From TrEMBL:
It comes from Siphonobacter aquaeclarae. GO terms for cellular component: DNA-directed RNA polymerase complex. It comes from the Bacteria. This is DNA-directed RNA polymerase specialized sigma subunit, sigma24 family. The keyword Membrane does not apply. InterPro entries: RNA_pol_sigma_r3/r4-like (IPR013324), WH-like_DNA-bd_sf (IPR036388). Keywords: DNA-directed RNA polymerase, Transcription.
Amino acid sequence: MSFIRDHSPDEKLFRSLLKGLTFQRIQNPGGKALVFAEWIDARVFDYSRISELSADYSSVWTTKDEDFCRRQHDPPQWVDWLQALHHRFTERLLLLLKEKAESIQDRLPKDADLSALLTGLQQKDADAVSVFLVRTDREYNQAVRLFIQEYHRKCLDHVRRNSSQDPEADAKDLLTILLEKFLKQIGEGRYTGPSKAKLSVYLHPILVNSWNDEYLRRKKRESQLPAGPAYEWPAPDKAAYVKAGVERLKEPCQGIIRSRNIEDLPWKDVALRCDLTEGYVKTKHKECLEALRTILDNPRF
């Protein structure tokens, strides 16, 4: 992390999170190509998984590619197709990275890594780009861990002093909300790095207001929960009934329920697909189940 060694801890955190937010959704093209190659080599075509992967190739995946995967081909044909797809994706990746790098260069004008990245992009050096993405992802994860270590204690202290019946669980929920709001402010440019005030001073009112909102929201939700036994879904049409209810959910609940309860994906994959933190989707999942239950209990709701 040489590019931030001359800055304060708050500045290091900000730079790592900003870079991570900018580049974390861009995947290594070589890695994706290897996944394709494994499926092709095994001659196993799970169309739902291919559709998921094609989302990462959204700018280059075509109906011709989809049709190609559904047909039988000789090994050389598969290799040629894979190489062509990989080339198209790499070209798109380099263009996308250039746009993202230029968009934050004004916010980090003296960042040596960004300057080196832009040079590599101009030379279309895909290997150098992949190395940069791996390093950025590592720095982003480290910054998130440091944030959690520092602010979990602050969240725990606050909920203990303010009407929490389960401080440990509430502190985790509050920390998730706090991190989500902070990342959103960085991404939107509302927080541009520490100036005179420390980061803790900046985040304190957000923490306090988040807990007040969360506490009041929980109380309201608890008062609205229906009494009596749990609702029994109609057995004959259970699948269709639940599917119709899920389709009425708003995002991100619809995506979370589909990924976790219908497709049975791990929490990490659910978070990645919904573009949310793992802690947030775990917390949000409870609310989504309640929202789904409300819909199923009240078909005309």
